[in-house]
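Re: the pair you flagged

First of the two:
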Amino acid sequence: MYLVPSILTIAGSDSGGGAGIQADLKTITVLGGYGLSVITALTAQNTRTVAGIEAPSPEFVALQMKTVLTDIPVAAAKTGMLFSAPIIRAVAPFLERKNFPLVVDPVCVAQSGARLLEEDAVTAMVERVFPVADLLTPNIPEAELFTGLSIRGPEDICKAAEKLLEMGPRAVLLKGGHLDSLAATDWFASLDQKPLPLIQPRVQTQSLHGTGCTLSAAIAAFLGQGLDLLSAVRKAQQYLNLGLRSAFPLGGGAGPVNHLAPLFKERARRQVLEDLAQAGARLAARPELARLVPEGGMNLALAVPYADAPDEVAAFSGRITATRRGAILVSGCPEFGASPQLAKVLLAARRHNPEALCVLNLRLDDDLPEALERAGLVAVSFDRAEEPGYLKERDGGPLEWGTYEALARHPEPAAVDAVCDGGEFAKEPMARLFAEDMEDLLRKLGLLLTELGR
C-alpha cells in the first residue's frame, strides 16, 4: 500500500484562499501529500486588503499542535504566519522536539502591505523558531528586517545569508523576487554551501498573492516525499513558476497563483492526443502537402498548455510520409515523447513565445521562403555554421540553439511563424512552422499551400 506523506502547515487562514493555510493545503494535496493544519490566526482578507485579524488563544494553538502530533506521523512541516510572541512561545516547544524536517517561512507582511507579525514576535521568532528550522525562506524585505542590512545585490545577499545562518537555521533560501532583475533568482545557502543562485524565468503577472506560502509548502511536501533539501527547493521553484505562468485573474487586486496547474496539465494530455490524431487525418486528406514532406519524413507535435519538458509534447510515433503518387501516409499513433527533437524545438520557441503549442516540419526548397512571405507568414532563419562547438555532439542541440537564436534576433519573436534551417552535410534543409493550436497551424499551412500552388 502506498502511504501518502502527512505534511503539517502551521499558519494563518486567508479567507480569500490565495495564501496561508488555504494555499498550503492546495499545494500539499496537488503535490501528493496529506495536509494537516494548525491555525494561528484568522484573517478577513481578499485580493485587495487584509480587513482584520483575529488570533486564537496561544493555549488553543498549543492544543491543535498536541492533538495532531500525538496521533498522526508527520513527514515534514512548515510554518507561515505565527502572528504574535505568545503564539510563537506556544508552538516552539513542539518544534524543538520534532523528528521531521521543518521549513520556516517568516511571514511578516501580506502582498497587500498589511502587517502579519506583531512587533514583539520578531525577537521571539529569531530566538525560538529559527534555531529549529531546517530551511528558512525569507524574502528580501523579511531578510532586511531580521538582519538589519540593506539588500540591493548579490554581495548583500551573501552577507544577509551568512548573518541569517548565524541565527541557527540549517539552511537559508533567500528569495530574490523583490529585486529588479530579468530573472527571478533565489539564493540557497547552508553551513557547508556558499550562496548558490537558483534561477527561474521571471513571470510578468499581477497574481503574486501567496507565492511565499506556496513555495514553502511545496518544499515541505517534497521533503516529506524523501527528497534532499536542494532537490526539494528546485522542484518547488518549478511548481511555483508553473503556477505563476498559468495564473488566472481573480478579484481586483493581487490574485493567487494557479495551485492546480499540474492537474490541468495532466488533464490536457488526453485532449492533446485526440487533437493530434484528428489533425493527422486532415493532413492525410491533403495530397498537395506531398511537395512539403521532407525526404526524412514529416512530423507534427503538439504540447500541453504551459509545457516545459519534452515528455509534455506529443507527436506521431511513426512519421508522415508521401508516396511517389502523392498520397500522404501518417504512420504510428500520437504519443508523448515520440519526437524528442521536435519537442525540443518547440520548447525552444516557447521560451520566446509561450503561446506556441504546436510545430510541423516542412521540406525547405527554393520556393518556400517566397511562398511564406506571400502568405503573410513571418519567417526567420539560422545558419548551422554559427553553432557553438560544444553543442555539436548534443542530441537536438543545433535545432534548439538555432530556433532560439533565430527568434531572439527578431524584434517581435512572438510574431514569427516559421524558422528556416538551411541544413548542412547529411542534414536536410527544413522549415518548421509554429502555431498556437492545431486550427491555427492548419490555417497557416493552408495559406502556404495556396501560394505554392499558384
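Second of the two:
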Amino acid sequence: MVHAQEDVVTQVSAPAQGELLAGRYRLDSMVNGNELNGYYLWRGTDNLLSRDVSIELRIPGGEAAESMLSAAAHAGRIQHSNVAGVYDAINEGSRAFVVREWVEGRTLTEMLTSEGPLDSYRAAGLARTAAEAVAAIHSTGMRHGQLNPNTVLLNDSGELTFTHLQLSTTTPAERDIKAIGGLLYAALTGSWPLEASVTFRDLPEAVRVDGRLCTPRQIRAGIPAYLDALTMDLLDPGASQIDAATLAHELRRYDIADPELGPLSTISAEPAPQRAAWKKFGIPAAGIACILAAGLAVGAVGLPDISGSNYPLSADSASNGSGGKQELRPAAASILDPQGDGSELAGAARAIDRNPATMWQPDAYRRGDFGGIKSGMGIIVDLGKVAKVREVVVQLSAPGASLQLRGADTRAADINGYRAFGQPVRNSPAEVTFLLPRAENTRFLVVWITDMPRTASEDNPYQVGVREVRVYGA
C-alpha cells in the first residue's frame, strides 16, 4: 500500500546505516547509491516482522518519486513466486521509499560473467520460468518493461526472481517477449543480442556479420536446433510473436524435469552427423564468418554444428518464392501422441525449421498402422495466433503414407479435438499439398498420420519422417 504524508518538503541528507524508516525498516547495508540522482538501494530489516527486506529510496520524494511509487503499487498486485514481492511504499515528501522482498542470489549478468554460458537445459529452463513470470505480469494488464540480465536474480539452487520491474500499461507486450529471447540468447552465448540501454550494457554485444546476428549454434557447439530456431524467432522482428503463456507452455515440453510431461530428450545435444557438416551441407560464408568472429569476440566452445540451422533462420515470413503466396511462419511445433508413452515426442521443431535435411520421425513399427497399438500420431503446428489458412505443404521422407490435415483454434489433447480439413490422403506421394476449398480460420494445425510405408529394414520395417510443414494464407 502506498502511504503519502503531507509534510512540508525539507532537505534530507543521504541515508545512513542503522537509520530507521517509518519507525520500522532499518537500513543495514547499502547495495548501491548515487547522490547525484538521489537513488539508493539498501538491504534492510523489517523490525516488526523480523525479516530481511530490500529498500529502494528516492530523495527527494513528492512528485519526483511518483513514477517509482506508481510502479510499486502495480507490482503489489502481482502474486508470483518468481517476482519479488512488494511489502510497502511510503512517500514522505522529502523522501520516498519502496520496501520489497529481499532475494539472495546473483544477477544473470554476474553468473554469465563468472561462469560463462549455461548449458542448453538450464538456459531453456530459465527462459521457461521467465515466460511464466511475464505471463503473470501480463495477466494484470501490465508490462515488465526492463527485462534484462541485470534484473534477473538466480539463487544457489538456480531459482529465478524478477527484480526492478519498470511496470507500464503502454509498453508493448512484444517488448517483453523479445526480451525473453534476449535472455535465452545471453544464457546460451554469454552475449547480449538486443540494443544496449542506459540500464543495461554489462555483457559483450552479440556477434554480427554484415549486420546480421549470428545464431547461438554458430557461436557454440551442441545447442539443439529447436532451441536455436526458437531463440532467433523470438528475436526476429518479422516473425509472428506468441504470448508469454504460450511460450512458457512450449518450453515446458522441453523441460526434462517437468513431472507432468515426463522425460524428454530434446535438450540434450543432437548426435553428430556422420560426415562433417561443412562437407554434407556446405556452410554459408556468413556462417563461417560468424564462427571466426565468435572465436575472436567471445570464444567459441568447439566448432559449431550448424547442420540443422539452415542459416539464416530469421527469413522474411511473407516471402516464399512460390507465386506470391503469403507464407505463414509457425511459432512452434509439438507432437500429438495421445496413446503413446511419451518416448516419441522429441524433435517436432525439425519439421518447421526450413531445412529438409532434418526431420521428425516416430519409432519404427512392425505394421504400418503403428503396430495396431495406436490410431495415429501427428505434428501440431502452432501459428502463434488465429490466421486464415488456405494451403499446407507436407514433405515426407518417403511416399506411401496415409495422412490427414486437421485444425483448431485451441490446443487439444486428443485428435478428436481438431476438425478435419478435407479428405484423408492415402498412399501419398513424398510431398503432399492440402489445398483447402476455402480459407480456414485456425491457430493449430495437425498433420495426422494413420499409416506408414514400408522401409528396407527387416526388423520393424514401417516408418516415415516429416521433413517440412509449410503453411500458406489466403
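The first strand starts at residue 2 and ends at 4.

-B.
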